[in-house]
Amino acid sequence: GAETKVIEMGTDKTKWEPTVNDIASQDWDLILSGGSDIIETFNMVAENYPDQKFILYDTDNPEIAANVYGMSYATNEVSFLAGAAAALTTASDMPNANPDNVIGFLGGMDIPGINMFLVGYIEGAQYVDPDIKVAISYAGSFTDPAKGKELSLVEYNSGVDVIFNVAGGTGLGVFDAAKEKMRYAIGVDSDQASLLQESDSEKANLIVTSAIKKIDKAILGAVKKYQEGALPFGTIEVMGFEQDGIGLAENDIFKSVFPADLQTKLEEIKQKLIAKEITVTNASTMETSEVDAIRNAVKP
After folding, report:
1. Per-residue pLDDT tens for 129-149?
2. What is the per-residue pLDDT across 160-169, written as a single tens digit (0 to 9) for each?
3. Is 127 within 8 Å of 151 (Cβ atoms)?
4. What is the 3-state secondary structure (H, E, C) of the chain?
5. Which of 15, 59, 87, 164 is least surrounded by CB atoms within 10 angstroms?
């Protein structure tokens, strides 16, 4: 029964503030957007329209106006589970796994948001195998699939048999490289295997799973809380496993490609994360030297 309207603001940030101001002057109950880039605009407009309510469905910026509600995601925790999946894959008898005890990671940029994924991934892999090695690459871009493929091929050629893609559009190159080398990959943010299943099933079947932000469920949950008068504006809440804000894709490919006993092991690790029996490092405030030490410790 909700009336909704979608406005595409484009990539020219100079147009964002006048657009949001225009929307805020209209009679909407809620205005939603996502991404840390938009929070500055939301905060400015929110001060001009104190009676208007805003939801940021994906941001890690802690500065938030009193009439804005924000959500971030425990990417370190879901990456821990992705790391465990990668470590189980490389040590398995799966047909495209090799004897080398090395997994891979491709990041869009060497920035705190990406290193949140990296550190969680490394810790999850080490939880399964303390001696595992991790080949790490950064593309310097989120929009260059050719670069993503080039870096992934280097990793696969070095002995890596599964790569975690945390590189946006650049990361699509990981899947191209996986298909070329017949190795495995892990997707990010959405169920990337399902997205590719119709267009290229061979490629999709090499994506063991994906580390998902359940943004759809998070938005719906926030709107329901708003209807109930229970949405805590002026705060940013972290969506973890217990809020059903994150998870691994457990699609038909995962169920058929990933052995049943390994699925059971992953579920056990997930339940320990939910029960807080496992604590995952939050790398968002780490110094570069600390991240370097972690990267160097697992260097092949």
Report:
1. 999 999 999 999 999 999 999
2. 999 999 999 9
3. no
4. CCCCCCCCCCCCHHHHHHHHHHHHCCCCCCEEECCHHHHHHHHHHHHHCCCCCEEECCCCCCCCCCCEEEEEECHHHHHHHHHHHHHHHHCCCCCCCCCCCEEEEEECCCCHHHHHHHHHHHHHHHHHCCCCEEEEEECCCCCCHHHHHHHHHHHHHCCCCEEEEECHHHHHHHHHHHHHHCCEEEEEECCHHHHHCCCCHHHHCCEEEEEEECHHHHHHHHHHHHHCCCCCCCCEEEECCCCCCEEECCCHHHHHHCCHHHHHHHHHHHHHHHCCCCCCCCHHHCCHHHHHHHHHHCCC
5. 15
Q: Among 205, 237, 201, 234, which Cα is nearest to 221's?
A: 237
- What would you report as the CA-atom Rg of the chain, rounded to the nearest whole angstrom? 20
pTM across the whole model: 0.88
Contact 139, 153 (CB under 8 A): no
Tokens of 196: 């590719």
